[in-house]
Write a structure and sequence with these properties.
The chain is an alpha+beta fold and 818 residues long. It has four domains: 314 residues, Glycosidases (TIM Barrel), CATH 3.20.20.80; 113 residues, Galactose-binding domain-like (Jelly Rolls, Sandwich); 124 residues, Sandwich (Jelly Rolls), CATH 2.60.120.260; 119 residues, Jelly Rolls, CATH 2.60.120. The protein has 14 helices and 46 strands. Strand 9, helix 7 and strand 10 form a beta-alpha-beta unit.
């Protein structure tokens, strides 16, 4: 009977998923969101429509649903949709309506974070650059000009959603909206204009009459009826809770990794599946959490110049779905199992009474009971020791820093530290090498001098006010007479609030320098001056705009001070006669477009030169898998495929470990033609295009590890029906099973490693242990070779003779997929 009850519970869950979601009344109380009168525990994932392509959306959303998500959360990108006042764009990757309708068609809800300030490592936090030119404006404060434009855009988006009947109150998928974003971080900076702005934003949002609740993330003092929510990695520990007993506990950003910056430490990006699962389960158990959103579930790509300062194109690549939309194991699978285990106890979770039972010094049981239903979370917060506890008169072993979920308060359905999902290894395979000089054409950018510029000033101009972010580049030029002998040696000193500077003296590159995410740019270099007239040209480069902080409208960028220091004299040219040029000649002439560039003389490739453009053509790789551009031989610049920018690259800015932050750059299949794709790059340094290749990305290795010490909870799909298998062998008399699965259209071609016994390590680093059955590999090969998936019972009946009687054993296998 107990087993039938488990099957029935999971059948109900599965049936509701298959049936899809239907709109209706959405309210909330102190326990959860209530949709059509039904309480919901909701797992959500952030997927941003402009960070992928429309042809990718169905697959990404489908994989999110298969991973156990109920909701897709997205920001609305103001500067993308309104690049100029009253000029709107909702086409292509900006087609938010199409994106939301795709979510709805797949039976999922939507959490819409309108903002319209979003941060999100997006250029200028999503604010349009033209807002800077509005007289008297102060962003995100009790400022009438800003409030006017913010309300105008918010109303535009709300009315668009209403016209498409996308709010749940109209039968659509949107169950929740957000106004503002993490405003509490800067509220004090605005003194008396901060708190009134919060109240105004709340009232303005509610007055839109969407029929669904609104929230303010990371805003502890969010006014009623706004729901205050938590952002961070450990909201089960850090969240102070809802600011009213009538509001549910919600987690808007459960960071699945950390976003990367150019030159950043790759280690700071890593967050394990175990850690995410632990803190998610803790938030549910300890804080009564009923809405958890993973930020990001799929990060995608910052195409073009959309990334904020020092942010590379690849965004949250280590999320459950990687940059290309492929499943990232074990993160995706481990969280899927967590979702299924929690949903099995959703009724007592949402309607039952919570209690806390101390099981030890650092061990607790959070119990939720409703009549005869019960779910328990057994928490071991000890980071080093496995602890044996007794609960419900049953013994349980809790691994270090873990939570065991017991949907019936008896059976361990899931443990956050026991990863039974397979691990996958991603490979980049060169398909086309662009290593022939005959393939390439070259165009050398012109270095402007003072006399050739038309934009003049008597001081150093602010870069952003001058370029209006139409380009990353602004030239600063001046000329002066040098007395004395020729070839006089001196030092050029440049202080900049830009991100990179390249200095030219009389047309020759004399030095470059760059800052970091937290430091300014300072260049000091030795130069040789001619007797008589000297032309100094300094290229200031921005790598995205800031995306956070107060008073963004006041931020300065570009050169701040320029001096030439000689033996006898220090000359300060800061307040001098300057000539400026916005952007590069190649940008102005749009040499990256498919049609032949007007006014540009392309030449045969000669040799890598600083500040040069390169052009070639290639055919698309066969198949449908992800395509990337390997730019490991280049320096810094931007790349275009068939006129569409795939983003900035910066290979030469190395991490503390000496590697490039990003080497492979995403080229969506929708950007490509079957033949004659045009690749154009501009490189500020002396990158060598002959080292570029067109690569494909695939999952080539899969690895699984199962142990009879901590048997797995496995949710397997049979068509559209889920079944539970492999419960704790001591309580259900079953042995754990080992599962391997290759990506679609691939087969298991080789068993690279297999050990039944006590293998050392895990799927990242493994070796044979003291106890090992020599025939392990042959047994797994018989069961798996030639199949796209296989299941192997971890049993002495199959793996015999027993290599070490009386010892708890594991099975660890790595296989190749082709």
């Amino acid at each position: 009977m107990a087993q039938q009850r488990w099957w029935w519970c999971l059948f109900v869950i599965t049936s509701s998923i298959i049936a899809g979601v239907y709109g209706g009344e959405v309210t909330y109380d102190g326990r959860s969101l209530i949709i059509n009168g039904e309480r919901k525990i909701l797992f959500s994932g952030s997927i941003h429509y402009p960070r992928s392509t429309p042809d990718m959306w169905p697959s990404i959303i489908s994989k999110a649903k298969q991973g156990g998500l109920d909701v897709i959360q997205t920001y609305v990108f103001w500067n993308l949709h309104e690049p100029q006042p009253d000029q709107y764009d909702f086409s292509g990757r900006s087609d938010i309506v199409r994106f939301l309708k795709e979510i709805h068609s797949q039976g999922l809800f939507v959490s819409l974070r309108i903002g319209p300030f979003i941060e999100s490592e997006w250029n200028y936090g999503g604010l349009p650059i033209w807002l800077r030119d509005v007289p008297g404006i102060v962003f995100r404060s009790n400022n009438d000009p800003f409030k006017f434009y913010m309300q105008k855009f918010t109303t535009k988006i709300v009315n668009m959603m209403k016209s498409e009947r996308l709010f749940a109150s109209q039968g659509g998928p949107i169950i929740l909206s957000q106004i503002e974003n993490e405003y509490q971080n800067i509220e004090k900076a605005f003194v008396e204009d901060g708190r009134p702005y919060v109240h105004w934003a709340s009232q303005m949002a509610v007055s839109q009459h969407t029929g669904v609740p609104w929230m303010m993330c990371a805003q502890d003092n969010a006014p009623d009826p706004m729901i205050n929510t938590c952002n961070g990695r450990q909201c089960g520990e850090t969240f102070v809770g809802p600011n009213s007993p009538s509001k549910p506990a919600m987690w808007t950003e459960n960071w699945t990794t950390r976003y990367q910056v150019f030159g950043g430490d790759i280690r700071s990006r890593v967050r394990t599946a175990e850690d995410i699962a632990y803190h998610t389960a803790l938030f549910i158990a300890k804080k009564n959490g009923s809405f958890i959103n993973y930020y990001m579930y799929h990060g995608g790509t910052n195409f073009g110049r959309t990334g904020s300062a020092f942010t590379p194109p690849s965004y949250y690549d280590l999320a459950p779905l990687d940059e290309y939309g492929q499943i990232n194991q074990p993160k995706w699978g481990h969280l899927k199992e967590l979702h299924a285990a929690v949903k099995l106890g959703s009724q007592p979770l949402l309607s039952g009474k919570q209690s806390l039972l101390k099981l030890g010094r650092k061990q607790d049981a959070y119990i939720f009971r409703r009549k005869h239903e019960c779910i328990a979370f057994l928490v071991n917060s000890n980071r080093k020791k496995t602890m044996r506890v007794t609960f419900n008169n049953l013994p349980f072993h809790l691994p270090p820093l873990s939570i065991s979920i017991l949907p019936d308060c008896k059976t361990v359905a899931f443990n956050t530290a026991t990863v039974n999902s397979q691990h996958s290894t991603r490979s980049f395979l060169p398909i086309i090498k662009l290593d022939s000089a005959k393939r390439w054409e070259q165009f050398k950018e012109t270095i402007p001098i003072f006399d050739e510029t038309s934009l003049r000033s008597n001081t150093l101009l602010d870069q952003l006010n001058t370029t209006k972010d139409a380009s990353d580049y602004l030239w600063y030029t001046f000329s002066f007479e040098q007395g004395g002998s020729s070839d006089s040696r001196a030092h050029l000193s440049v202080d900049s609030l830009g991100h990179v500077v390249h200095a030219y003296v009389n047309g020759l590159l004399v030095g470059s320098a760059h800052g970091t995410k937290i430091t300014n740019t300072i260049l000091t270099t030795t130069i040789s001056l001619n007797r008589g007239l000297n032309n100094i040209s300094i290229l200031s480069v921005m790598v995205g705009l800031p995306d956070s902080g107060p008073y963004l409208e006041r931020r300065f960028s570009g050169l701040r001070r320029v001096r030439i220091v000689g033996k006898q004299l220090v000359q300060d040219f800061t307040n001098h006669s300057w000539g400026n040029q916005v952007g590069l000649v190649g940008e102005k002439l749009k040499v990256y477009r498919d049609e032949k560039s007007q006014g540009v003389q392309w030449n045969a490739f000669n040799s890598p030169q600083p500040l040069s453009w390169y052009k070639t053509k290639f055919d698309a790789p066969e198949g449908s898998g992800p395509v990337v551009l390997n730019l490991g031989s280049m320096g810094k610049g931007e790349a275009w495929i068939n006129g569409q920018s795939i983003g900035r690259y910066w290979i030469s800015f190395l991490s503390p470990f000496g590697n490039s932050t990003q080497t492979w750059y995403n080229v969506p299949r929708s950007f490509l033609k079957s033949k004659d794709n045009q690749l154009v790059l501009v490189d500020e340094e002396s990158g060598n295009p002959l080292g570029i290749s067109i690569d494909t990305v695939s999952i080539t290795k899969v690895c699984g590890h199962v142990s009879d010490i901590h048997p797995p909870f496995v949710v397997s799909w049979r068509g559209q029906n889920k079944t539970i298998s492999d419960f704790d062998k001591h309580q259900h008399g079953r042995r754990p099973k080992f599962h391997l699965r290759c990506p679609s259209k691939k087969r298991i071609s080789q068993i690279l490693f297999a050990s039944y016994g006590t293998p050392k390590g895990n799927c990242k680093n493994f070796s044979i242990g003291r106890c090992h059955l020599p025939s392990s590999k042959a047994i797994v090969e018989k069961a798996c070779i030639g199949k796209w998936k296989c299941t192997v019972p971890q049993s002495n009946k199959l793996f015999k003779p027993d290599p070490c009687s009386g010892v708890s054993k594991s099975l660890l296998v790595q296989a190749r997929c082709d």
